[in-house]
Amino acid sequence: MIATQSITTHRLDVLRLALTGAITAAVVFALCWLGTLVPFSRPTHAYIRLFTPAEISSDAALAPGLCWSFLFGGLSGAVLAIVYNLLGPLGRK
């Protein structure tokens, strides 16, 4: 009897990770935007500035910032999953 060895590589679902990144980035943006409304809070809010040139606490910053943050998070998640899947063979012994 010949023993066979089965080598499986874990693969990430690109769409699932893209959606995870997109939703997470949009939620973080919304939380940062809400943080600008707290009067005693003076962080830099640099995350908001990544996605919109509008005044950080304005309504004009919220909609486009959420959209761009969502798209950036989706792109980041998809790229991460694709690179992880491409590097899968490196984990085989």
Strand content: under 5%
Give the biggest sheet. none
Low-pLDDT windows of residues: none
Q: What value does the Rg take, in angstroms?
A: 20 Å
Structural class: mainly alpha
Helix content: 55-70%
Characterize the overall form. Answer: elongated
Structural account:
The chain has 93 residues and is mainly alpha-helical. It contains three helices and no strands.
Question: Gist?
Answer:
The chain is an all-alpha fold. The protein has helices at residues 14-35, 46-51, 59-86.
Which key terms come to mind for this protein?
93 residues; mainly alpha; 0% strand; elongated
Secondary structure blueprint with pairings:
Elements lengths: L13 H22 L10 H6 L7 H28 L7
Helix pairs in contact: 1-3
